[in-house]
Amino acid sequence: MNLFKNVSLFRLLLQLIAIHSFLVGLGLIVLPFGVLSWFGFTVDPYRFFSAQGGVFHVVMSIGYFLAARNPRGEKNLIIFIILAKWIAFFFLAFYFLFSEMVPVIAFSAVSDGLMGLIVMMFFLELYTQEEMDG
Q1: 3-state secondary structure of 58
Q2: DSSP 8-state code for residue 72
């Protein structure tokens, strides 16, 4: 059995990505200044941008949960998730390389890139199989 044709595993992956995004978002919204600086970030004294980034992550987690409910029926949402993860990967990688070499940014780039790659591999296998069956 091909690992990337397993819809239940794909659903679990999307749920784990949703939980990850939700927790990152919650952290960005509620963590005090000092804690965010432990990760190497320059803290915004007004907290606007970290809170905004947190809300963005929470909103994205809703999309991941919606896609997890029926991955085969949410083709456009899965494509959006792949694009979001790859855009995040490139943004974070370039930001790390050309702006601030903060280790958590590099880690985030790699993890977003891997999540995007794995979601894309499931997508390609499931939709290729679906098109061959249909």
Answers
A1: helix
A2: G
